[in-house]
Design goal:
The complex is a heterodimer of chains A (about 100) and B (about 210).
Chain A: H1 3-10, H2 14-17, H3 19-28, E1 33-35, H4 36-43, H5 47-59, E2 63-70, E3 73-80, H6 82-101
Antiparallel strand pairs in A: 1-3, 2-3
Helix pairs in contact in A: 1-6
Chain B: H1 3-16, H2 20-41, H3 49-83, E1 86-87, H4 93-120, H5 126-145, H6 149-167, H7 173-200
Helix pairs in contact in B: 2-3, 2-7, 5-6, 6-7
Classes of the chains: A alpha+beta (about 100), B mainly alpha (about 210).
Chain lengths: ~100, ~210
Amino acid sequence: MSANLQSSLDGLDRLLHEPARLMIVTTLYPLDQSDFLYLLRETGLTKGNLSAHLMKLEEAKYIEIEKTYRGKLPLTLIRLTQQGRTALTDYRNKLKEIMEQIPK
Amino acid sequence: MDELQRSKKRSISYWFEDGLPEIGTGLVILLIGLMLLLVSYLPEHSGWGWPVAIGQPLVIISAFYGAGKLVKYFKERITYPRTGFVSYPRRQMNQRLKRGVLTGMIAAAISIGVTLLSGVLAQSFVPLFISVLLGLSFLLLAVNYGAKRFFIVGGIEPLIGALLCWLNLPDPLDSAWLFMGTGICMVLTGLGGLLHYLQTTRPAGQEELP
């Protein structure tokens, strides 16, 4: 493996490299915000799994979570932060870079 | 296709998933057609010219505003409890301005084109020409936003134009029927979409709430 490729691989954001989290962030990217139910349906993850991944993304400040109510039902609103958007763009660029280095 | 582009398309097509926006827009277009129909029955020099000229844009703007509110009301009660809520980023002022100017320019170009064409073509071909343009716009929406039902409206649109061309109705009766036909078509495809949506989804249970 070339040193260049090794360094590109090392530079990949490990938090986003996890498929479920990448799916969450990619789903949120074109939106202003979505609720928990939309993400649950779109990603196909279980409720517990989604919550766990959301917590990790929130800890990294990639997303913001707002807990509120719609009528009497709890409503969790999720929004991708600017930091999260930048991280996804960087991740995509890095991945492209890596793919270009892999011989066909 | 880039996964981000696919995700963007998917999130935009989600807006059309329940058929409600089509029903709302279709009702407004139907109203425009009905207004033109009313105008076509007004006797010439009846004194209604000015009130109609001023009133029409006001009614259309209010109708679009009201339809937007109505769509939001029904989405909150039907769609969000079933498949979730999303909101889209608001465009910045200069982006909205650019889009407004572009839309205005396209509308003006079409209007000039129709006026020029009406001098060359027989009046009966004008609705056909407009319907083809409308049909192409719907097909563009279908491709760009992944709203598949717009393929149906886009396909039917030239047929409405062809029928009106064959009927050879006087102006503005031909435009009135073109708008009414388009509006009815959108309301029907929207209702079909809504029915399908209601059959294939159910309100989220406790296990799906956070």
